[in-house]
Write a structure and sequence with these properties.
The protein has 13 helices and 13 strands. The chain is of the alpha+beta class and 374 residues long. Bound molecules: zinc ion.
Length: 374
């Protein structure tokens, strides 16, 4: 039986949304609703179709199903054979509340809307990822021991565990907008462009950003805001002169970290379009110190201290390609209440930037006078 042939007539069934309901019909039954190869379809679970089989008359007009009965969504390929091959790929996670299959990209269960967790954090905390990071951490600690800097290594880990935060660099105008109205939400580039509220970057840059985001995050790439892991509140001025240090409570459940800038990471590891990411280079908030130690451990020198390490964790280069950081990926945007404090990379290059920075300082002073960060 073909994967979608639920009524055993030798033809796959497909379905689509029409008039507020979900309708099913045989793959090659010309339906009035226009389900043709290339159209979207919804494939249904056999158990539910068995219950509803008596309703499946020719053309199947009028058989509405619940969304919970939907198993998979995609495009109808040009042949039934292709259809069967495509539907053979199964989702790899299940909702713990209702048992439905869910995609690794889902934040919410498509059937019951239960919270499945933040997909970037889930991806960084799979059993294989955690095990790979643990191995890399042990190797880095052994290497530090061999070089006589084990004490510095352990102190560095302790420092990152207790004193590191997420800092986002933004242009002065964006920081001013965020702080001046509590209704404003900071979101990333892809969401701004997707919503039509800003123009895309030049095509090559736009393609690069979307390719990198797509490779790391798939269909939720537009939900990610990028920042860095920082020990001293600094970030990367190549992304903006204003450093927004975020409150831990605002992001710690929804942030994941990557060993380095995501573009440089994919380039360095020569990750192909269709291929897995190397493992052990991502972390959650809880094990961010282990990840940072795998990167900074080999650079530690005897007698170095916290201020030395802060400058090694965030390296501000002449261009973005020369920067170095442990990149932070925050799922979804944040409001002004998420900002703990602000630092500046400089006084501003233009008169407009200087005015924006002056406004930001006034807004922060007012906030401090009113009781500080909520
Ligand atoms: Zn569910």
């Amino acid at each position: 039986m073909a994967a979608g042939d639920f009524d055993n007539d030798g033809l796959n069934e497909v379905a689509g949304v029409r008039g507020g309901g979900i309708y099913v019909h045989d793959f090659n039954t010309p339906p009035s609703s226009g389900f043709v190869p290339g159209a979207h379809f919804l494939q249904l679970r056999p158990c539910h179709l068995a219950v509803n089989r008596n309703n499946m008359t020719s053309g199947c007009d009028g058989m509405a199903l619940q969304t919970g009965q939907v198993e998979q969504m995609g495009s109808v390929p040009s042949t039934p054979a292709k259809n069967a091959a495509r539907t053979a790929a199964k989702p790899t996670m299940k909702c713990q509340d209702c048992g439905s299959d869910a995609s690794e990209s889902d934040r919410l269960c498509p059937t019951c809307q239960s919270d499945l967790g933040f997909p970037n954090v889930r991806a960084a905390t799979t059993r294989d990822e955690v095990a790979a990071l643990s191995r890399r951490f042990k190797d880095a600690r052994n290497e530090a021991d061999n070089r006589g800097v084990k004490a510095e290594f352990d102190l560095f880990v302790s420092e990152v565990r207790s004193k590191s935060h997420v800092v986002v660099a933004v242009p002065p105008l964006r920081a001013r907008d965020l702080l001046s109205d509590p209704r404003n939400i900071y979101v990333g580039y892809e969401k701004l462009v997707g919503s039509g509220s800003r123009k895309p970057a030049p095509l090559q840059d736009d393609c690069d950003r979307r390719a990198v985001g797509g490779k790391l995050f798939g269909s939720f790439a537009h939900e990610i805001c990028y920042g860095v892991l920082s020990l001293d509140g600094t970030s990367l001025p190549n992304y903006g002169l204003v450093f927004l240090k975020l409150r831990d409570v605002a992001i710690k459940r929804r942030v994941s970290f990557l060993y380095e800038n995501s573009y440089l990471f994919l380039k360095r590891h020569k990750v192909p379009v269709r291929g897995d990411l190397p493992q052990g280079y991502r972390s959650s908030w809880q094990n961010r110190a282990d990840l940072a130690a795998t990167k900074i451990g080999p650079m530690l020198v005897p007698g170095s201290n916290a201020s030395d390490w802060a400058r090694q964790v965030v390296v501000q280069g002449p261009t973005r390609s020369d920067d170095s950081c442990v990149e932070a990926h925050v799922f979804r945007g944040f409001d002004a209440n998420a900002v703990e404090n602000i630092a500046f990379a400089g006084p501003g290059a233009s008169r407009a930037e200087k005015v924006d920075i002056k406004c930001i300082n006034e807004l922060m002073a007012k906030r401090t006078a009113a009781g500080g960060t909520p």
